[in-house]
Amino acid sequence: MCIRYFIPLEFDLPALIYYSFDTATVSGSTLLNLGSGGAAYNAQLINSPAISSSDKMVGTGAMQFTSSLSQYVQIPSFTTGTSGLSFAFWFKFLYTGVHSRVFDFGNDAGSDNILFARWDGNEDIYISTFRRAARYSQTSLFEQNVNDNTWRHAVWTIDPSGNWVVYVNGNLLRSYGSVSYPNAVTRTLNYLGKSNWGRDAYLNGAIDEFYMFEYVLSADQVKELFYLGRNRVVFALPYYNRVSVHESDDTFILHSSYVILQLLLFGLSLTSLCFFSRLNSLRLEYLSHTGVFYWYDYETAINKWR
């Protein structure tokens, strides 16, 4: 029996700004913008933050920041509109200091800022926007210590009515009604890893896959982004006769009693899987990058989605 399953891998959510932090996107001190805004939003690496090819979540690299070296990324000026905003990224804090930022976009301290940072009351996160100097904040988002050297995926959406929604690791975490929508102005002082307040600590930690969208992501789109970082899928298939993978770049490992296929799904052109096997005690399981769980029962020949 041959089961052929086609797996779509395209991710097509246009972002104005997208930094993958892959090694090929860094040239000297310039970080290439892969978003729709193009080279106008290429960023500058200040004080040489390093790309790590081993400590990453997606692709070939993530940006590492050392607070004591005052390292950060400076993004060119941009103008926000009125159709909504979404910020998505992987981050981890490595015992980072109070008020250290993942990002801070604004025109100075307390001037139209939009920021995501470590809270000073605990080891948690707070988010803030400023309309001119008027501040709107939500604190202790995660209700846990996140200053623990652990990668997390965060998404913050702001709709035109000022409703805020926060997701962590693909799941809804918090929603706040009618908080505030940032002024549609040009912001000139835009940083990853640095605050617009001079007294605040620089980031000690890492960022991967930073996106800024000029619209509100849906829950399904958030999950799709998250699963791009879950880019290893394992199939355990007992009692096999033969397994064939139609992809030249994928790898597979054969064991005496079962097969484990480790498929690197991000950046590959995988089109189908074809399994030849006996019908007893065997089924194919696949968790897609959009979070849909699929399995095929070989004994009953029934497809299941759940």
Can you describe what's shown?
By secondary structure, the chain is mainly beta. It has two domains: 2-8 and 231-305, no CATH class; 17-213, Jelly Rolls. The protein contains one helix and 28 strands. The strands form six sheets. The chain has a nine-stranded antiparallel beta sheet with strand order 3-4-5-8-19-11-12-13-14, with no helix packed on it. A hairpin with a 3-residue loop joins strand 23 (251-254) and strand 24 (258-264). The longest helix has 10 residues, at 219-228. The two termini are 24 Å apart.
Give helix % range.
under 10%
What is the total number of structural domains?
A: 2
Coarse morphology? globular
Q: Looking across the biggest beta sheet, what order are the strands in?
A: 3-4-5-8-19-11-12-13-14
The second-level CATH architecture of the largest domain is: Sandwich
By DSSP (H or I, 4+ residues per run), the number of helices equals 1
